[in-house]
Predict the structure.
Amino acid sequence: MLELRLVQGSLLKKVLESVKDLVTDANFDCSATGFSLQAMDSSHVALVALLLRSEGFEHYRCDRNLSMGMNLNNMSKMLKCAGNDDIITIKADDGSDTVTFMFESPTQDKIADFEMKLMDIDSEHLGIPEAEYHAIVRMPSAEFARICKDLSSIGDTVVISVTKEGVKFSTRGDIGTANIVCRQNTSVDKPEESTIIEMNEPVSLTFALRYMNSFTKATPLANSVTISLSSELPVVVEYKIAEMGYIRFYLAPKIEDDEEGMQAEAQPPPEKKAKKEPKAEAEAEAKSEPDD
Amino acid sequence: MADVETLGILEEIQVLVSVKLQVVSYKWLSRNFSVSSNDAKRLLQEFVEKHGSGLEVIYTLSGYLKDSPQIYHISLVSGLKLAEVKQKFGDSCSVQVYSVQACIPSDPAALWNAEFVQAEELFDQPSTVENCLRDNRFCGVSNSFVKRNASGDPGSVAPQPSKTGLGVTASSKTAGAFPAGVVPQPQPQKGRVQQPSPKLGLQASTVVSTDDKTGKNAPVVHAELGKPHTDKATTVPADKKKLQNEKTSSGAGGSLANLWGRASSKSKPSCPSAETATVVTNPIVTADAQISAREALDAASSDDDGQYSRKRESNGEISRKRRVVFDFSDDEDDNENVVSLASPDLPKRQPVLDSTDETKNLAVEEKKLNFEEKKGEKLEIKKQKTTDSDSRAWLKVDSEAASKNINTRISSPEKIQSHILEGLEDQHKKNQASDAAHTSPKRKKVLRTRIDERGREVTEVVWDGDAAANKNTEKNAAANGVENRPSASNKGPALGSTAPSNTAGKAGNKKMAKGSGKDSKQGNILSFFKKV
């Protein structure tokens, strides 16, 4: 027997909206600690981990651990029928192959029951080790979403590099290049609007913007986003969910087998300079050529 | 008009506007209370002066715009913006109250709703009954085909004043019993519309102007109007055309003029529907008005249709071309499009199209090149030499082509792999950075074929250093100051040999990734986290 009552039903709606484009089917795991989900996208490049702790629910009853396979699109369709202010209750019986979503309007004058069929999903549950990250960037989620959106109109991949200066998002595409640098900024009145960079060592990784953009669908869930980078680990893009949990997106970096290419990419200033003194630069270029 | 009567009407307006929340336009007022449209406007003006405080007013501004004095403009303007819009008109613009309502409706169509309902009601009356629409009684624009009956018995006129709002709406639901009958046509055709005096009540709710713009707007409006009309009189021969029109114009929607036009479709029976209605029921109507109206429609529809089909056609063409044509001309932007839109997944189709399209291209290119570059010839020879020397997977250099791009392009139809094309694009992108790259022979493009992890044969074009060409490079560099730019971007490739095609190839790979979810450069999350 499972019964989870979530007063702020809109949270669940937003969660689904943020995940459903990345993952089509997933197992929701219910345990005494909370309601969680872990799933990879179909190409096994990104992983989403969701946790809604039991304390966040007004009422949380989970007699035994239960894994419910759901088609997230279908679930999203059902949740779309809930109002933003509605209280959502998730109910399931042991051994049943359905789950029931109950939507109560805040005034209690409308109650809707939606029963959805469950499905058997072979879940590949991954162990995600706790890790120390080289750099952790916290920034306004809307800002991050904007950056990803803007960059994706120029290139397919983003290089996120964290240095003492700040965090730099750069891309390169057919039409040109783009670099966006966000500096540490803690002076803002509102803490959620600040940009905080904790860096142990500089790190620079390349990611597919397509996934990043998909992650930013979770922007409505939180005002700020935390991006954790380590050179040998997938990036973690984390959105906190109103004191009851988080949604984390893990994305495997693009593998750089060619450092030089990246260097050329990361050093636009010489090019600019070259424009001014083309001759000298060109000669230098030519001289250096045989060395290649 | 007697003051007492006026007062009575004003009170009614008050009730209508503030209690029933109806939009009271002068047109509606005129028909409902059987007053002339000018009187109706005056009444509204009076009403606004007396009770206008809590209400929203929409004014009709008509006159010549300052910036386009030859065009007669009529605009509907809300009270708030009146002054602002007035500025745009010349000195002699007329301001009349168009309608009063409790609030400005978010959908402009709502302005016409009451009128529409009312007009429908009037049309639904038995054709024997003379009403204000049938005899064009209150319209400021006379119509020679319709005998006015201004002195006509007001008793037979239209709905009773008491029958407003909801009542009318309800009865309007039964519409359809009578196709529009003998319709007085204030503006039977465009030609007529052209010189409306602002003093005369403009029955048309459409935005009318007499310039070339009219040509565009008017037909659109007419077309829009056609739709509701066809609902009623489905036997009208022009229906089909009108439907088409309707479609096209709504497709082109978005401008304010269209909005108004669309909205006015609600008031359809008041004027434009007469176009067809008269054909049906009133054969006396002289043919030429009819014809000209029809012609206008035809013109509009054919214009629109033409546009549409043309657009579609060209779209198709473009997309097809983009996929296959590698036009390595100087027009970089186009090339970018070509590159970005090229689909890597059409290996079967591509080569065929390639060869045809490219030969065409080639011809052009060749000609240009022949005229253009003498220097090129020198380079060719050199290149040919180098390519000859290495028979493995070098690109075949066509002696007629002056630049490397051309060479690769020529070879592309021969090699059927779409990957080549991708590679070419990539390379080409690089080369585009400047002319220097085109002529700089210091690196060669090399075709490398390998079997990828999915068992497909992948042929890539990669750069290979060519020290022998350094002399040329220098020469070019001296001649062409921008040299370093391409070389900067080429540096990667030269050093890493496959780097550029990798970075640039990412785009292509990504596209494939979308389909198959695989990307050779994309790390796998499973390599980081272990299953539990």
